[in-house]
Amino acid sequence: MKVTLLSAANGKGISQKTGAPKHYAFSSISYLVPEKDFIQGDHQIQKCGFEPKSLNILDEQSLYQKFKNILDQHGICQVDLTLQPDPENMSRNVVSDVKFAG
């Protein structure tokens, strides 16, 4: 799947918000998709440009590092994503690999 990559994030820690310590971890990317017009019944909304979206990536430091290296070298750029079923929710996909697409 080819997308325009904006950013990547990888975080781990212990949240104290609820009083009891709770472990958290996340890994995700942000990318751009073309805006789409919305036409339904009496509603017509025209859109142009791009909309940011996000997608989870495997929680692996090596995968995050691939995204970081691409962004450090090329900035906002086109990449090819490899998707696989999310092991924590088989009805969703998660990014398992990335390659610079130029």
Write the layout of secondary structure elements.
Layout: E1 2-15, E2 22-34, E3 38-40, E4 43-45, E5 50-56, H1 61-74, E6 77-86, E7 89-100
Antiparallel strand pairs: 1-2, 1-6, 2-5, 3-4, 6-7
Q: State the major sheet.
A: 5 strands, antiparallel
Q: Which stretches of 5+ consecutive residues score pLDDT under 50?
A: none
Question: What is the radius of gyration computed over CA atoms, rounded to a whole number of angstroms?
Answer: 17 Å
Give me the side-by-side strand order of the main sheet. 5-2-1-6-7
**N- to C-terminal separation?**
14 Å
| Percentage beta strand | over 45%
Mean pLDDT: 94
Helical run tally: 1
The number of domains:
1
Gross geometry: globular
Helical content, roughly?
Answer: 10-25%
- Structural class determined from secondary elements: mainly beta
Query: What is the quaternary state of this protein?
Result: single chain
Give the tally of β-strands.
7
What is the succession of H and E elements? EEEEEHEE
Describe what you observe in this structure.
This protein has 102 residues and is mainly beta. It has one domain. It has one helix and seven strands. Strand 1 and strand 2 form a beta hairpin. The two termini are 14 Å apart. The model has no long low-confidence stretch (mean pLDDT 94). InterPro entries: Vibrio_Phage_CTX_RstB.
In a few lines, what is going on in this structure?
The protein has 102 residues and is mainly β. The chain is 14% helix and 61% strand.
